Amino acid sequence: MNTTQATVRIKARYRFGVFAFDAETLELVKNGRPIALRPQPLELLALLLAQPGELISREHLERALWAGDTFVDFEQGVNHAIRDLRAALGDTAESPRFIQTLPRRGYRFIAPVERIGADTPAVAGAQSAEAVAPSAAMRPALAWLRASPRWLQSPRR
To answer: Given 3-state DSSP classes, what are the helix, strand and coil percentages for the chain, each rounded to the nearest 5?
Structure first.
């Protein structure tokens, strides 16, 4: 692994819409189910989520995703990574919900993002998101419960 790519992998977890993303392990899940993507789109997502609402220039993406000694067609590479990422998120360039394109300048993550983890300051009197997050073993059961009819979810009176 080159040192440029290592700087992308910060220790942070994010939640946006029905998705959760772990920037350290580069794991993207939708409703508790993992989404398979190549590493570059996931590294691109880590960069965008680290600075939500901010323009991430194409030059910054080139430096962060490809080492200085790597020879690739950057334009094709970043376009392909964005296209794969949008497909995984169910997003489009024409009507973006997550990734906005600023032509010839770069990209911006436009959806509300919640950073979760130990370094996130807790709201007074509330538990941290880390403390209330379901364990990995409970996620399939919770997904089943969410998909179940309402009468299964509420206690009888």
So the answer is: 35, 20, 45
Q: What is the DSSP string of 118-137?
A: TTSPPPTTS--HHHHSPPTT
Predicted TM-score (pTM) of the model is 0.67
Minimal CA–CA distance to 17: which of 92, 98, 85, 86? 98
Amino acid (1-letter code) at residue 12: A
Parse the chain into domains and list their residue ranges: 3-153
Mean pLDDT confidence for 114-130: 48
Query: For residues 20 and 27, what is the distance between their CA atoms, to the nearest angstrom?
Result: 8
Indicate the range of 3-17, 69-83, 84-98 predicted with least confidence.
Answer: 3-17
Cβ 28 vs Cβ 45: under 8 Å? yes
Domain 3-153 CATH (choose: 1.10.287.70, 1.10.287.3510, 1.10.3210.10, 1.10.10.10): 1.10.10.10
Backbone phi and psi for residue 128, each to the nearest 5 degrees, phi listed first: -70, 155
